[in-house]
What does this fold into?
Amino acid sequence: MSTSGMPPAGARRHEPDTDTIVGGILGGDRHMLSRAITLIESQKPEHQRKAHEVLDRCLKQKTSSIRIGITGSPGAGKSSFIEALGEVIIRSGLSLAVLAIDPSSRQSRGSILGDKARMEMLSGRKEAFIRPSASSGHLGGISPKTHETIVLCEAAGYDVIIIETVGVGQSEVEVDTMVDFILLLMLPGSGDELQGIKRGIMEIADAIAITKSDGAQEGIASISKTEFEAALRMLPAKYPFWHRQVFLTSSVTGKGIAEVWENISDFFKELRKKGMFEEKRKEQLKSLLYSVLEEMLKREFFTHPEVMRLKEDVENQVLSADLSPFSGADTLMKAFTRPR
Amino acid sequence: MSTSGMPPAGARRHEPDTDTIVGGILGGDRHMLSRAITLIESQKPEHQRKAHEVLDRCLKQKTSSIRIGITGSPGAGKSSFIEALGEVIIRSGLSLAVLAIDPSSRQSRGSILGDKARMEMLSGRKEAFIRPSASSGHLGGISPKTHETIVLCEAAGYDVIIIETVGVGQSEVEVDTMVDFILLLMLPGSGDELQGIKRGIMEIADAIAITKSDGAQEGIASISKTEFEAALRMLPAKYPFWHRQVFLTSSVTGKGIAEVWENISDFFKELRKKGMFEEKRKEQLKSLLYSVLEEMLKREFFTHPEVMRLKEDVENQVLSADLSPFSGADTLMKAFTRPR
It folds into this structure.
C-alpha cells in the first residue's frame, strides 16, 4: 500500500515562532492563546525556553485585569455559579477568562470532572475564554503554570480572570498568592463545617456566597448566612477597608448573582482608591518569582548529568539499606556541581 | 541587684550528644524521643546535621512497627476515634505512638486545634506516646519531618504508629507515601460528598469507618455504610488480595472499634504473607530519599552566599518590572555555583 501523499511519520505539527505567538495573543487570537498555554504546560526544555520568552513579552504589557479566585467544596456548585456570574460580567460589557483547575485523582491519573459537561453556555460566548486545566501531580492542583496562564490571559486583554479551584485547603492558600479577590462558595447547611481547616479558608475569603439558595433550601440557606456572618465577625479583618459579606445566591433563579458582582466591583474600586492594586500585583509577581525559581531548581537538579548518572545507584543503595536516605541525599547533592 | 548564682544570660540549655540521644531513644526514654523530634523540627543547620546523624543510626535498627494513617474531614471525630482505637491496641498488648498533625491557619499562624484538649485518656497511658505537631507552613501539613518522626518512633520500639491527618485532599496523598494502611473516617450522612475530590481520598483508603454511629444517627450511618460500600465497588482495587470494608463505629459506645482493629491486623497478616511488607518499606524509604533531597536542595540554594547576595536586588528588579520573574529566576540560578 502506497503512503505517498501522506505526511512522513516523523513530521511535526508546524510550531509558530515566538513573534507569531505573542502577536496572536495580543491581537486576541484565542487559538494562539490556547497554544501558548499548552506550550507553558509542556515539560520539554525547548518548550519551556520558548514559553518563558513569550511570558517575558506578555509581562511587559500594561494590563489592568482583575483576578478572582472562586473556591469551595466539591458539590458546592462552582461551575453553575461561574456560568451565572459570567453572564452578569459579560452583560456589564466586560470579557472574561475562566481557568478551571481539574483535580486529578492520583491512582487513576484521570480527571474527575473532565468528563462532565461544564460551563456550556459560557463556552459558547465570544467574550469568554474557558480553559480547563488538569492539575496532574502538582500539589493542590494549583501550580506556577496557573500563574503563568493568568499572565497570558491578561496580555490577551481579558478584563476579568476567574480561577476556579476545587478542594478544600491547600489550593486556596496557593491561589491566594495569585488573585486579588477570593470568593468562597458554601452549600446551605454547611455551617457545621466551620471548625477546623475551614477556618483557614474563611480567613482568606473576601466574600462568601451561599449557593443553591432556592426552593426548599432557602430556609436552611438563611440560617447558614447568619452562621457565616457570625463566624466572619470572629476572624481578623483581611483589609481594614473591607467588610466581608455573605450572599444568598442561586444559579437557577439568578438570585444574588448581580449583588456578588457588585460587591466584587466595589472591592476593586476600594483597592484602587487605596493604591493597593499595584501593591497586590507586586506581591503576586514576587510569589511568581519564587515558584518559577523552585521549579527551575528542581528541573536543573534532576537533569544534571552527574545526578542522573548516580541517581539509580543511590536509590538502590538506600533501598537495600546500605545507605540512609540522608546520606543518599547528601551524595546526590555533592554530585550537583555547577560551574562558576 | 546581684545576679550571682544565676546562669549567665547567654547560657544554653544543655544539649545531649548524638550517642546520648540515640541511646535514650533505643532505651525507650520518651523524654529523649521528644527532644529528638524537636531536633528534627529545628531549622538550624547544626541541629539538622545532628538530626541526620540520629536518624541514620535509628534507621539501622531492625523494626517491625506497623504504620497507620487515619484521616477524615474536620469534625469527623478523629481524636475520639484514635482514643478508642488506642485503648483496644493497648489492651491487645501493643504500644503505640500517635503523631497528630495540627493544621495551621495561614493568616493567624496559630494552631487551630492546639488549644483543644485532645486524646486526654491516651496521653495518660504509659504504652502511648502522643505528639501533636504543627504543620506550620508546609503544604498540606505533612512534611518530610513527619516521615523522620515515624523513623524515630519505630526505633523507640512502638509497635503501632498512627499518623492523624486533618484536611481533605493533598495531605492524604502525602501520608500515603509514609504509611502502610489508611483508614478513612466519615461522618454519617456524608455520602453526598462522594463526588469530586473525595473520590481521590477513597481511592487510597484501605478501610472506611463511619464515626458517631450511635443514638439518633444510627439510621443515617447505616445508609451511609451502604453508599460507601457501593462507591468502593466502583473503584479499582488497591491490592488484589484486599477487600475494603466499611465499619459502623462509635467512640462513645465503643461500637465497631475492635472490628476495625481486627481488620487492620488482618491486613498486615496478608501483607506479610504476600511478602509485600518489606516492599512497602522500600517504597517509603525511596519517597523519604526524595523528600529529604528536595528540602536539602532548597536549603542549600537559599543559603548559598551568592544567591543570598543577589536575592534582594533581583526581587526589587522583578517588582519594579525591570526584570521578569523568569529572567530573575535565571539570574539566581546562575549565581548558584557549586564547586566540582
